[in-house]
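Review form for a predicted model. The reviewer records the input and the model, then writes brief findings.
Reviewer: anonymous (R2)
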Amino acid sequence: MSDSIEKRIELNAPVSRVWRALTDHREFGEWFCVNIQQPFEPGKEAIGQITHPGYEHVTWRAVVQKMEPERLFSFTWHPYAIDPDVDFSDETPTLVEFRLEPVGDRTVLTLTESGFDKIPASRRAEAFRMNDGGWTQQMQNIQRHLETTHAG
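Model under review:
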């Protein structure tokens, strides 16, 4: 099993528009299916309630690492931490990175989630499998979001 997941998609939107979809907490929540209350800020924890059907009981938590405008947005989190009765805080989180690259008036978005080798063996394969599929869906979600919202 690999230590990381990588997904790439070319989006029909300029880098500035994709950046906003990633880093505005309300807009991120629209396509990612999470209701986040506070703006993203490096070094701070972002907390929200997942709105995806079947996962509404899950509180989403991530610590924003970097926000390098129109280039890199990253956070750490505990992958597939959906059991409200389990405390995942002792686990080493994985690192999620969104890298943006302009290609004309379009943007190549590369998502990498790394650090699965640090997840406890008892849940590593399931966390990897679920996030691999989840990131495929999220890349489709951001693409659909960008296609159906105003570029403004």
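Findings: The chain has a mean pLDDT of 95.
Further findings: The chain has three helices and seven strands.
Recommendation: see findings above.
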